[in-house]
Amino acid sequence: MIEIDGVSKWYGQFQVLSDCSTRVARGDVVVVCGPSGSGKSTLIKTVNGLEPFQRGAVRVDGVEVGDPKTDLPKLRSKIGMVFQNFELFPHLTVRDNLTLAQVKVLGRSLEEATANGLKYLDRVGLLAHQDKYPSRLSGGQQQRVAIARALAMDPIAMLFDEPTSALDPEMINEVLDVMVGLAQEGMTMMVVTHEMGFARKVADRIVFMDHGRIVEDTSKDEFFSAPKSERARDFLARII
Ligand code: ADP
Ligand code: MG
């Protein structure tokens, strides 16, 4: 479903991604971890064309992301992305957050978009909050709305970039529970996170990055029991 093939990217002289390759098969969950500044966000954003790159190729469902002829807005509409800071529209109610892109991008009727959006809002346990503005919700609730909003687009894959790292500890699990449910239902997911409990539960593979390189790309059992690189061993020792 997602193929990252020899991707390199520079900011001027600084190489932020070095020959990165990995794959996410349909229905798989790949967790990306590694120290701050190692290139995780940059890598995951190449998948939906939010980060251009100079070398290599990224394909999603057979579509070449770096090809200038690719319709990026269309591709992005098929890939859900959830960020650290929720990124809900502050001036719209929860319900309007859920319907906007369905109507504007997918051309759904407001009625259809509302029914679909509320189905996902119910799924994340927030149906009663549909008339509220995001600022009236907790961080955990806002992030669950952001996930529902992404799912309402019926994506073929979901990207998560540290979805729980801006949350107070007591709210982390309500978001992870939604993500575990999605993983168990077979959603294709690429998840940047340091939540190793989540990784142990649902990851099919772990990608470990350091200084712009993928230094491990392995099964979770191997990653947790016998990480190959010293950097990964250090990293695990510090966060677990
Ligand atoms: P991570 O998500 O693993 O913390 P990032 O992908 O955000 O890492 O960043 C990787 C590196 O690229 C960092 O060293 C960061 O400072 C650098 N970087 C990110 N964006 C830019 C930019 N627009 N210009 C220059 N350097 C950048
Ligand atoms: Mg990041």
Description:
It is a peripheral membrane protein. Keywords: Amino-acid transport, ATP-binding, Cell membrane, Membrane, Nucleotide-binding, Transport. Its main location: membrane. Residues 2-236 form the ABC transporter domain. InterPro entries: AAA+_ATPase, ABC_ATPase_HisP-typ, ABC_transporter-like_ATP-bd, ABC_transporter-like_CS, MetN_ABC_transporter-like, P-loop_NTPase. This protein has 9 helices and 10 strands. It is α/β, with parallel strands linked by helices. The longest helix has 16 residues, at 169-184. The chain has a 6-stranded mixed beta sheet, with helices on both faces. Strands 2-1-4-5 form a 4-stranded antiparallel beta sheet, with helices on one face. The chain starts with a strand and ends with a helix. It has helices at 40-46, 72-77, 94-104, 110-123, 139-151, 169-184, 196-202, 220-225, 230-239, and strands at residues 2-11, 14-24, 29-33, 55-60, 63-64, 79-82, 157-161, 189-192, 205-210, 213-219. Helix content is 38%, strand content 25%. The chain is globular and about 50 Å long. α5 (139-151) packs parallel to α6. A hairpin with a 2-residue loop joins β9 (205-210) and β10. Bound molecules: adenosine-5'-diphosphate (ADP) and magnesium ion. Residues 11, 14, 16, 36-42 line the site of adenosine-5'-diphosphate.
Question: Main attributes?
Answer:
single chain, binds magnesium ion, binds adenosine-5'-diphosphate, four-stranded antiparallel sheet, six-stranded mixed sheet, 240 residues, alpha/beta, 10 strands, 9 helices
